[in-house]
Write a structure and sequence with these properties.
By secondary structure, the chain is mainly alpha-helical. The chain has a domain of 45 residues. The protein is built from 3 helices and no strands. The chain is elongated, with a radius of gyration of 21 Å. It starts with a helix and ends in a 6-residue tail after the last helix. The model has no long low-confidence stretch (mean pLDDT 96).
């Protein structure tokens, strides 16, 4: 049995509450990894063209009246 299969079996044996806690843990882990990747990309200048495009769009958009 592979590690993955063992993990899948272990997850199936968890209570619904434990599965919810595991799901939240994975979501938080994925969100942290995403944040880290965005920070690395920003520091490397990979987002500069997107930021410039967004600023151009912002400058070209007429202000809305409130």
């Amino acid at each position: 049995m592979s590690d993955l299969q063992a993990i899948q079996q272990a997850i199936q044996s968890l209570s619904p509450e434990e599965q919810d806690a595991l799901r939240r843990w994975f979501e938080e882990r994925d969100a942290a990894a995403w944040d880290d990747q965005i920070e690395r990309d920003a520091a490397a200048g990979k987002l500069d063209s997107l930021a410039a495009e967004a600023m151009t769009d912002y400058r070209l958009t007429p202000p809305r009246e409130l």
